[in-house]
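Reading a protein record of the kind used here takes only a little practice. The record below shows the convention in full:
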Amino acid sequence: MWLLETNVRQSMQDAQKSGFTPSAEHYAKFEARFGDAGASGDNKLLTIAGENAEISVSGVITKAPSFLAMMFGGGNTTYPEIISAIAAAEQDESVSNIIFAIDSPGGHFDGLFDTLSAIQAAKKPTKAIISNVGASAAFAIASQADEVEASNIAARIGSVGVVATFRTNENEVSITSTGAPKKRPDVTTEEGVAMVREELDAMHEIFVTAIAEGRGVTNDKVNADFGQGGTVLAGEALKRGMIDSVMTTKPTTAKKSGNKLEATMDLKQLQAAHPETFAAAVLQGTTEERDRVSAHLVMGQSSGDMKTACEAIKDGEAMTATLQATYMTAGMNRSDVSARQSDDESANAGDNATAPEVAASQADDVASLVESRLGLGE
């Protein structure tokens, strides 16, 4: 029983019926791919880069290596290899994420559900990325991941269904025992087709149930909206809930500026992605804020207008020409007042004694407030 796109299955069957004879070169390729499987302990599907483990699922998926699948199905991946790769990724302490790189028209029914169970049991976050095609059995594998993404808008996704193919021979007659009429259904009759379809429907039900559970939807949703046996392009698959996202050439967080794309990110993302840049930005901001606050404090103390200085500091205002004029005016007014009161030495003495102390106290209060907000005193 196949969970496979029709055109791929047809190509394999045509090759088989035509009596295709592989060459020595074909056998060498097959031997290179599967000949030493398990002998070296290395898994040919698994690639580890940083904290990510990528498991390649390409070509027709079978329980055991298949020469026809490799030659006419765009390659061949086996279910045991996938299970082994998952186990290796789970055991590797350097791996934090498991990614399934899928480009497959599907595969055989046998072996699929053991693979789905292995994905479901994985403790590390999983993601499936579908490029070109993720159909039938391959889509079932993708559906079990925590996140499913199409690598491009042309990716074909779906083909949910079970197919059985029979070859008839007019010179062959099968007779079953009385108690086993369904053992050899005659597919040239309506009764025989009904018998086969009964079995296919049962298999279809558990196949759909696995996909529905993986995608968090109902069986009815899968049967109605997930292509009804056909594939849909990535954009439509996204609308129907078959996948979670479609990778695009420009980030969804990008803003267009002229002919360039400017990516945007918040402070947490910047700190996580570029810690050195984040630290430099914080240092620069701190330095600029110190300069701004100091400028206002100096002007406020010199002019005697600490009220304006404190308000400017709290409001985040820069040292503008308008504020400089305000400080200068306050300073001149203060000088005029001092000159008019020069004949009163006691008053001048009191003013000279208390003004600097008040200004210093206000400056200290403002500086402490700013440093507290910037986290400079910690």
Q: What stands out?
A: The chain is about 50% helix and 15% strand. Residues 2-252 form a domain with the 2-enoyl-CoA Hydratase; Chain A, domain 1 fold (CATH 3.90.226.10). The chain has a mean pLDDT of 78. The CA atoms of residues 208 and 219 lie 6 Å apart.
